[in-house]
Amino acid sequence: MCVFSQTNFTKKLGVTSYVLGCLLTFDCQGATADDTVNNIIKRAVEAYGGDTLMSLEQLQIEEQLYRFSEGQSGFAAHGAHGIQLYTYHQQLKINYISKTKIFKRSDQNLIGNYGYYDMTVVDRRFGGEKGFHIDHCMQTFQPTTRINWDSVSLDMEAAVDSLIVKALAESTTQMERKGTMLIKGRIHDVLSMTKNDSQHTMFFDSKTGLLSRVVRKKSNTKTRYDFLNHTQNNLGIVWANQTMISNDGHPYKHVTSRKVTVNDTNGSLILKPKKYRRKPAVKFLDFVEPSINQVAEGVYLVGQDWGFTLFVDVGASYISMGSWQMPNDAFTWQQRLAHLHQYTGNKKPVSQFIVTHHHDDHLMGLHDVIKHGAQLLLLSEHVEAVQSSQRLPVAPKKLTLVEDATELAHGKVQVFDVPSSHADHNLVIYLPEQKVLFAEDMYGSSLEAGFHSPNSWPSRDVYYRSETLEQKINSLGLDVQKYVSSHHGRVLSNDEFNQALGYVCPNNKELVGRLYSE
Question: What start-end ranges are recorded for coiled-coil regions in this protein (predicted)?
Answer without folding.
Answer: none
